[in-house]
């Protein structure tokens, strides 16, 4: 069953629309990876393989895209694996298509039980991306996917620590390693894929229909968990309407419980923890307007004005209503000093496939990551050029 994904990937034919999706993924991934050039994870990974390093650095800011049906960060895994193996758009699309279908088949119950689908679906998908780049046929891709199974793990408890981006790097690296072993003739039983899939809670066969990547990834405009993009967008409308954070007496956030699944830090102590906090999402949006990288640091999370708002925030969840991060809508009601109130509600944040970011917003994101002087270079980068750019930014010791 799962091995059928290898047959699909080996015979994949891409069109211009697919290539446009791949190009957006390449530019966005390279931009957010370069943006993390000063992060401590760069030094932590300096002796490690390229796929691991690029994926870990590319994910540490949590600024990379996310495929919502599979609840996984497709591009940081598949772009990194593709570039490390010398591939291009078709290799990326094959890996991304497998990851999307595999993650979707594993389902929300897999994610809601605590698995990090970016890693579980990511390792076999990275094997496909790297395998296509290396010229493997369908049989070789099946062996590569099976060889990646031992690394197809990762848990949400790592969120808010270096472990999150590192386990994403482990998945990308495992896929590249598996593909190279398969290319060298290593044997593996493709039935291991079905056994692993069942153990991971999967029960639905992957849907092989549709374009290379079914549903475009959502592009983030703020460097934090995707589940925070909606409350940030909602809170920004209150600030834009003239709300003064100093006047806030109480905040009540109403949201479906599915949207809280990855937001495990109610009172974040660090910048990394702040990336997984509903309370911080609202606080930073009210205080900072358009939260960027500077607002997800240890110092930013420790601001007295932030702590004041965290202490005044109550999150109320509603059961049911959907089984994904964007189920229902998020509502925010703010009680103000003097007895006034302000409230808002939002279903889709900017950057969602149903409410795509504008070209101006995407251009601004690239510039915010690499600076105005390099924005044009990164926006026009090719698959052939990208490995050299990343190697220059993150040289081996």
Automatic annotation (TrEMBL):
One Pfam assignment: MmgE_PrpD_N
All residue ranges annotated as the MmgE/PrpD C-terminal domain in the record: 222-371
Gene3D superfamilies per UniProt: 2-methylcitrate dehydratase PrpD
Location of the MmgE/PrpD N-terminal domain: 51-194
Origin superkingdom: Bacteria
PANTHER family from the UniProt entry: 2-METHYLCITRATE DEHYDRATASE, 2-METHYLCITRATE DEHYDRATASE-RELATED
Family: Belongs to the PrpD family.
Protein name per the record: 2-methylcitrate dehydratase PrpD
Organism: Streptomyces daqingensis
């Amino acid at each position: 069953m799962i091995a059928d994904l290898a047959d699909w990937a080996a015979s994949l034919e891409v069109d211009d629309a697919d290539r446009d999706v791949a190009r957006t993924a390449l530019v966005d991934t390279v931009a957010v990876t370069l943006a993390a050039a000063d992060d401590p994870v760069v030094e932590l990974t300096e002796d490690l393989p390229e796929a691991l390093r690029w994926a870990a650095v590319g994910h540490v800011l949590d600024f990379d895209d996310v495929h919502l049906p599979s609840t996984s960060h497709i591009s940081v895994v598949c772009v990194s694996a593709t570039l490390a193996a010398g591939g291009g758009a078709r290799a990326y699309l094959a890996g991304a298509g497998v990851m999307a279908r595999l993650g979707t088949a594993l389902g929300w119950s897999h994610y809601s039980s605590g698995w990090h689908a970016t890693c579980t679906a990511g390792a076999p998908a990275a094997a496909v991306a790297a395998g296509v780049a290396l010229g493997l046929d369908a049989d070789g891709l099946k062996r590569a996917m099976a060889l990646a199974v031992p690394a197809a793990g990762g848990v949400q408890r790592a969120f808010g620590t270096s472990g999150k981006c590192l386990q994403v790097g482990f998945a990308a690296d495992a896929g590249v390693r598996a593909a190279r072993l398969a290319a060298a003739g290593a044997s593996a039983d493709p039935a291991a894929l079905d056994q692993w899939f069942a153990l991971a809670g999967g029960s639905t066969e992957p849907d092989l229909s549709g374009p290379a990547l079914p549903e475009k990834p959502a592009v983030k405009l703020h460097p934090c968990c995707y589940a925070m993009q909606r409350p940030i967008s909602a809170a920004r409308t209150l600030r834009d309407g003239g709300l003064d954070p100093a006047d806030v007496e109480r905040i009540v956030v109403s949201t479906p419980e599915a949207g809280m699944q990855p937001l495990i830090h109610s009172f974040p102590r660090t910048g990394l923890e702040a990336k997984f906090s509903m309370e911080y999402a609202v606080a930073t949006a009210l205080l900072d307007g358009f939260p960027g990288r500077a607002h997800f640091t240890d110092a930013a999370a420790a601001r007295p004005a932030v702590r004041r708002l965290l202490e005044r925030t109550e999150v109320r969840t509603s059961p049911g209503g959907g089984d994904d991060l964007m189920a229902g809508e998020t509502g925010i009601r703010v009680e103000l000093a003097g007895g006034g109130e302000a409230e808002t509600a939002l279903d889709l944040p900017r950057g969602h496939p149903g409410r795509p970011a504008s070209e101006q917003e995407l251009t601004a994101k690239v510039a915010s990551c690499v600076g105005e002087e390099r924005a044009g270079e990164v926006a026009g980068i090719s698959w052939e050029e990208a490995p050299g750019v990343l190697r220059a930014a993150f040289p081996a010791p």
